[in-house]
Structures are given as structure tokens and as C-alpha cells.
Amino acid sequence: MTLDRPLVTALLAATLCAGGLAVSQAAQAESQGLYSASELLDADVYTRQSSDGEIGEVEDVLLDNDMRVRALVIDTGQLLDMQGQQQYVVETGKFTVETRQGDSLDTLEYRITLDLTEDELARQPEYTDTWWNAATQSLQQAWAETREGAASAWETTQEGASQAMDRIGQALERVGKQVQEASDQ
């Protein structure tokens, strides 16, 4: 499940500029405001317990319907004494992004630190076709429910506003009649 890298880089660059890279509050020591998708892909990944030992790299960045970062796919290769190449989905809020050498595009790089231990990382969902299909379906369902809820709330708001305007109109008519009657006397 790999997309064309230039397409992914262009899409991520636009997305990261528009939506901002969401990272956990604890990690945002100093927000950069703008992130390079090209440099974020393949960034070295560390866990909080092994801050000196790289455990993998960013393989992919997953976006939601609002084009915001939802998760990173971390490729551990064979670094965690696991069987074969493993790719895990790590949701936003479980990692931090640290900019290194950010003054020049030629030297720009990121360091990703997971707010997880290696054991916790191994319990994250594996990035597979099965996971992708289930996650896509679940998010589409949540999006549809949100859209329906928003439409229902809008209709309720419109109905309430219409009723309020009717009551205001009736009250103004009564006041107008009272003023007319008072002026006729």
C-alpha cells in the first residue's frame, strides 16, 4: 500500500501548510508552524525510553477528511527484534515532532519521539490492508454521522429562529395595535 512518493510529498506539503501538523501538547516545546512533508517522510523515530537509539522511520502520514494529520506510519524494519518488517499506525497525540537545523532547507530534518515504549508501539495497529479498510470505513461512518448531526442541528436552529421571528412579529403587531388604540383615545 504505497503511493507515488512525489504525489504524497506534494499532498502532504499542501496539507501540512493548510491544517498544521497536529502534535501532542507536551511535545510542542516550540511550534514551528510550517513543516516539510519531504523531510517528515523518512524522519528518524525514537521512543521515550530509548531516546538515543533509533527504532525506525516515518513511512507515511495519514490524513483525515479535513486534511489534518491523524497518524504516522512508523516502519520499524527489523530494529525491534520482531519478525520481519513491521509498520505501525501511531495516532496524533502519541508522538512529538522536533525540528533540527530548521534554518536551511538543505539541512532541515525532524526527529520524531513516540510517547510510547517499544512494547506499547508493538501493540499499536499494524499498517495493513485489513487495518486500512476497517479504518477507512469507520472514519467514513463517523463523517456521515457528523454530517447528519450537523444538518439536523442546522434544521433545528432554523426552525427555532423561524419560530422566534414569528413570536417577535406577533408581539410587534400587538404593540402596534396597543399604540394605535392609545393614540385613538
UniProtKB/TrEMBL annotation:
Keyword vocabulary terms for this entry: Signal
Q: Which Pfam families match?
A: PRC
Establish whether keyword Hydrolase is in the entry: no
| Keyword Signal belongs to the record | yes
Q: Where is the PRC-barrel domain?
A: 34-94
User: Which stretch is the leader sequence?
Assistant: 1-29
Q: Which Gene3D superfamilies match?
A: PRC-barrel domain
SUPFAM superfamilies the record matches: PRC-barrel domain
**Record's protein name:** Sporulation protein YlmC with PRC-barrel domain
Its source organism is: Halomonas cerina
